[in-house]
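QA checklist item 7 of 12: single-chain prediction sanity check.
[x] sequence parsed
[x] length recorded as 533
[x] structure emitted
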Amino acid sequence: MKTLAESWWHISIIKKALNCVSAPIISNPLWFVFVYVWGSICNLLVVWNGSRLIGFLQLFVDVYILTVFVTCFPKRTRRIVKLLLCLLLCPISIVDLFCYYKLGSPITPTLLHVFLQTNRNEASEALSSYIAIDATTYPVVVLFILIVVFSSIAFSRKARAWVNNIVSRTKTALSLSVFVSLFVALCCTAKNEVYLFHRLVLMKDEKSTYESMQYSPTVRFYTPIHRLVNALIEYHQENSVIESLHATVENTFVEDCSFTSPNIVLVLGESYSRQHSQLYGYDKPTTPFQAQYAKDSNFVVFDNVISAWNLTYEVFKNMLSTHCACDEGEWHQYPLFTTLFKKAGYNVAFLSNQFVVNSDTYSDFQENILLNDSKMSEAQFDVRNAKRFRYDEELLGECVEVEASFGRGNLIIYHLMGQHVDFKERYPKEWALFEPCMYPGLSEETAAIVAQYDNATLYNDYVLSRIIEKYKNTETIIIHTSDHGERSGLNGDGYGRRFSFCQEDIEGQYEIPFWIFMTTEYEKNMSISNKKL
């Protein structure tokens, strides 16, 4: 009898636990289903920030948490809270879908920045030009239909009674289903929830978040609400940084400059891992031009250069700022070296095949702080290009006009597309010299990726040689490095970048090339200057 009693007691405890966990949903069934279906449609229609399947699981957790929040209010005020949340959720989701299907991007920090910087006339003109009934507006219509259906049920007593009757009949099965679903969803998305907590609650940036977590989430800002909150946080943080940079620029001055180095060329590669460079011992001839130049004593190769991070923005702010890791304060409180050169009297050109002035594309990259803020761009550069090119070689033609207008002191920065994914898009077909069959031991898919990356590296070598030849007979010093490396399948499956700290990922993503080339004329005049000293 005691054993039977204990069994019934255990069953009773389990039932109470199940009822407790499922209580928020059981007491708000229509609300939970509406919000979850709404979020699922948004997750399904917008391909953004990760796996849809994981997004559905994480949505279950997030809507459950939101429903718990709603349940904390007394029944009299609960309806008002639900209504207010719907009034917040629905318009944001519709705007997000509209932006995605009309502009090619959901709500992002950059898109929010463009919107907030647009005046009323510009906004009304843009809106009128985009509003049209076509295939891209159908997703928004789907959401409106969903609103009508659930509103009809919510405001109908018979419909609400019918829903409550179904819930009461299936309460035990429903409680068990909620518990199992919540358990599975938490197991699959716990890391993602920690990521969102760091980014949206603690308001940490991407780098600080990954340093704390040391793993990459499978989805990030997967709903319109998450995207909007992230955009607002980043917009606020960017404004604070921009204000600090503006103050730093105003307080930056250079007393005198001797122009000992009259022409300085800085070539910034993209996603260039030195593990794929023949110059650093790679067994494939991916850098024949650089290997030939390396025979010249004026071509100095460094083999111990490590990137600050595998995100371009983090690298740019570390590279442009004179702030060092051991210095007090923040990077934006120190002068940018480009500003110092310009204030010293150098003509500074920034020729980029990624970030162009007057760009009409949208991204959530924070490089906008440094490059797209008009005051910061003006404080750093005299010349910028206004268009991108299919291949990096075409970017060199932009320098003809630049050189014609330059004087005795010139700093020219080339920012290439380099080996940025998608690798096969980074080189003309005639440069596809490496083939998957040249990589025995790798799977067919991985071998194809490595071959494409090596072809991109080979073409990049040619572009670098064109830059060297362009300045070879002038008094110029050329410096080449990359923002970061890339996972390319060489040390394992997969490509692109991720935030793990295993040896293969660190080597591929952080070990970058770095070399300096002094022309004969530059070396000769430097020798004369040193003798005078």
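[x] summary fact logged: The chain has 20 helices and seven strands.
[ ] second reviewer sign-off
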